[in-house]
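Tutorial, part two.
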Amino acid sequence: METKIIQIEVLTSNQTGLLVALSPDMPGFMAHGRSPEELKGRILAALEALIAARGETLVHSRFLGDEPIGSFERTTYKVETETALAA
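Running the prediction step on this input gives:
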């Protein structure tokens, strides 16, 4: 099994208030939500789907904390993931 920390950047639309999550560590990753709680659920679902597309299984994941950067318009989440090759 491999454990890694994935950085998630969260941007907030000034026009709609929609939260959009992107990751420099996971090409193709994108999730969105109207609240932080909704977004966190969608982040985990999107990570699981991308990891499965790579032929791996998400064994465990957890948020390591919220780390505001600069202003309320941008937040970074760190998610610890543990994966294994799919059977």
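The radius of gyration is 13 Å. In part three we will examine how such features are distributed along the chain.
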